[in-house]
Amino acid sequence: MTNTSRTIPHRDDDVLRELRAPQGRPLLLTGGTVITGNPLLGDWENADVLIGGTVVVGVGPGLLTAAGDDNMIVIDCTGTLVLPAAADFTTPHAGATLTPGQCADIAVLRLADTPGTPAGAIPARGTHLDILLTGGQVHLYDSRPLDTAGTTGQPPEGEPAHDPAHPFLGVWVDDNDFVRQELLPDGRYDEARGNRPSAYQGRYWITDNRIDYLDDLGFWAFGEFRDGHLHHAGYRFTRR
């Protein structure tokens, strides 16, 4: 039966502490969509992968029922894709597979951004490499190295500092005076289109001659400043 009660995996400090001091306990990745890469085993929409030492020891639905008996460290993989970290799916049995007895080199990919992300906010670690195991050891957890996972109070990774006095700030207008984009000092933009004021609004970051946009609707876009113009989405803008 498919688990539809949650769409994102649960992360807590208790699991982190266990992963940092595993003491030889088996590790269970549970509830994810498991792609084995082995046509004999097949794939599952909701299944488990059990790791013992450096190898995969079990794969498929139902392994979670033995978690307490076998003192497993359980990682929730709801809403993720669990697959070999190095695989060639074009050729059967080529490269790594999630076959019992194979080395536990496993990638867990989160499939969707966290629901309820506020408008204009950086999505909370969206579609990305969530967990990485090599040789049965967790090296990446919740998209961070295991020794720094779970830390708080840090800015979103990769977000450049905003300069409220950047020389590219101001109003940029396309050649037909149809799109008018204002880069505001507070790090937000407001884009009018034709007779639609504020057709698009969101956040922006300028790095050298590149501008990245995160619209309040949730999509990302970019532009480039070249030869005194802003080139973005097929438009050429001139500042006014």
* Rg on CA atoms, Å: 23 Å
**What structural class results from the helix and strand content?**
mainly beta
> Could you tell me the mean pLDDT?
84
- The poorly predicted ranges are 1-6, 114-127, 152-156
Q: State the helix count.
A: 1
- Strand residue content: 35-45%
- Note the gap between the termini: 59 Å
Quaternary status: single chain
| Secondary structure: helix percent | under 10%
Outline = elongated
Q: Kindly state the number of beta strands.
A: 17
Characterize the biggest β-sheet.
Answer: 9 strands, mixed
Give the topology string: H per helix, E per strand. Answer: HEEEEEEEEEEEEEEEEE
Description of the structure:
There is one protein chain. The chain has 240 residues and is mainly β. Helices cover 3% and strands 43% of the residues. Strands 1, 2, 3, 4, 5, 6, 7, 8 and 9 form a nine-stranded mixed β-sheet that branches. It has an eight-stranded antiparallel beta barrel with strand order 10-11-12-13-14-15-16-17. Strand 7 and strand 8 form a beta hairpin. The N and C termini lie far apart (59 Å). The N terminus is likely disordered.
